[in-house]
Amino acid sequence: MQMTANPYNDEKLGVNDELTREFPFLSIVIVNWNSKDCVRDCLKSIYRYASDLQPEIIVVDSASYDGCGEMLATEFLNVIFVQSDENLGFGRCNNLGVEKATGSLLLLLNPDTEIKSGSLHALIEEYQSLPVDSLMGARLLNSDGSLQKTSVHAAPTPLNQALGSNLLMRLFPKSNLWGTYEAYNSDTPTEVEAVSGACMFLPTALFRKVGGFNPIYFMYAEDMDLCLKIRKHSAHVYHVPDCLITHHGGRSSSEQPNLFSISKMRDALYQYFCYNFSLETADRYRKLLTFAAILKILLFLPIGLFRPNRLKKFIHILEWSFRQKSTGV
User: Fold this and answer.
1) For residue 6, is it within any domain?
2) What is the C-alpha to C-alpha distance for residues 150 and 250, in angstroms, rounded to an integer?
3) pLDDT digit string (tens) for the chain, length 329 residues
4) Distance (Å, rounded) from C-alpha 197 to C-alpha 144?
5) Closest Cα partner for 103 from 170, 201, 189?
């Protein structure tokens, strides 16, 4: 994919008070938490496939002290390293990195991602033709090259979160509940409700204008919250299929569900509904999730369609629901 001599133009940004024609025009922020080796591979892919963009790269370590800073100092001398003395979580650490960013455009990358040839160029090129003030997400791939189904999704609602399952998505792929069919079956950018936080590309000024990631989230749901804020500011969210990013940590964990992650995700979504809608909406989410978990256990357990790990997952969801009911927000 060819790059134009001027990779952006002055009229493109609706919030262009920070726009500059001097490099770096692109800042990349990566948050590290005990993932030094992943960060190394991510950086290697950036320098291999996007060194011509001369990006400013900022790595924030979230109090993991895993030797990431020392690795960067010896292997990637141009990378800006920010050490947080506190484990701030994904969103707040990204906010900390963006405070240091000087580029007019911003790319937020997970440490367990690797870019493909032409991926960042595709984002910048598509950015030129999309509406002012757009957030763009990539088409994420698993380590084996298969499509990662979490690249794009509908904004969370109590109903789609309760009904969400691989079986229902396969049976009704075109349902608006999932918000994925059009994006996954298009070879051009598609406006969507939400994209994965593993790769987010937007004007730096827009990120700052909406307040960055909401600090109430420690992990999970901060990307969905940001997409909602972007759309509330009359901006747009797009899925860009030409931007291919390998996301090694994103494969479904249904085979071996991480019960800690399940609880944290439910906590985050409960916060999302409380903060953006109401306590009543959050409690509706909890009740629908409880009903769906009980229904799945009653339907599938007697006919042997449940593997032990999946049964554990739904029992854990019930435990979370009853615990949340007793503690509230």
Assistant:
1) no
2) 8
3) 333 333 333 333 333 344 333 446 999 999 999 999 999 999 999 999 999 999 999 999 999 999 999 999 999 999 999 999 999 999 999 999 999 999 999 999 999 999 999 999 999 999 988 987 999 999 999 999 999 988 999 999 999 888 876 666 676 777 777 777 677 788 899 999 999 999 999 999 999 999 999 999 999 999 999 999 999 999 999 999 999 999 998 543 333 457 778 889 999 999 999 999 999 999 999 999 999 889 888 877 766 565 667 778 888 888 888 888 756 55
4) 20
5) 201
Supply 35's token pair.
């993932």
> Distance (Å, rounded) from C-alpha 117 to C-alpha 192?
24
What distance, in Å, lies between the first and last C-alpha atoms of the chain?
49
Where do runs of H (alpha helix) occur along 85-154? 90-100, 119-129
304 Cβ neighbours under 8 A, 6+ residues apart? none
Closest by CA position to 26, among listed 132, 102, 114: 102
Residue 150 has which token pair?
Answer: 């979490």
Q: Are residues 28 and 117 in the same domain?
A: yes
- In terms of residues, how long is the chain? 329
Query: Which residue range(s) make up the domain with 319?
Result: 259-327
- Pair (224, 303) in one structural domain: no
pTM: 0.86
